[in-house]
Design goal:
Elements: H1 2-13, H2 19-23, H3 35-48, E1 51-61, H4 71-82, E2 85-91, H5 97-100, E3 106-115
Parallel strand pairs: 1-2
Antiparallel strand pairs: 1-3
Helix pairs in contact: 1-3, 3-4
Length: about 120
Amino acid sequence: MAAHSACDALLSAAGLGDLGSNYGTSRPEWAGAAGVALLKETASRVRAAGYEIGNVSIQVIGIRPKIGKRRAEAERVLSDAVGASVTVAGTTTDGLGLTGRAEGLAGIAVAMVYPMA
C-alpha cells in the first residue's frame, strides 16, 4: 500500500496519470506485480518524462499503524526503488471510518518532482 501510494503521487506530480492508467487491467504484464517493482518502474517513467524526483513522503493511516520497528527498512527499500529519499510515517484516525474500525489501511503520499535541466 505504501509503494502504491508513492506511485500515484509520483505519476500525478509528473502529469502521467495514476496507477490504473499506467498498470491497469489492460496491461496483464503488471498483474500481481510487487509494489516495489511498480515503484521502480514508475520512477523510471517519471524520469523518462523529463522530471527528476526530489523526495516522496508517505503516511500510513490505520487504527494501529505500528511501523516504528520497520520504518528504517521500509524507507531504505522504497528509497532504493525510487532513487531518491522516501520517508514513511504512521498515524491513526482515532476510531473514525474504515481505518478506525481496523477494516483496512490507507496511504497518502506526496512527491516532489522538478523538470530536469
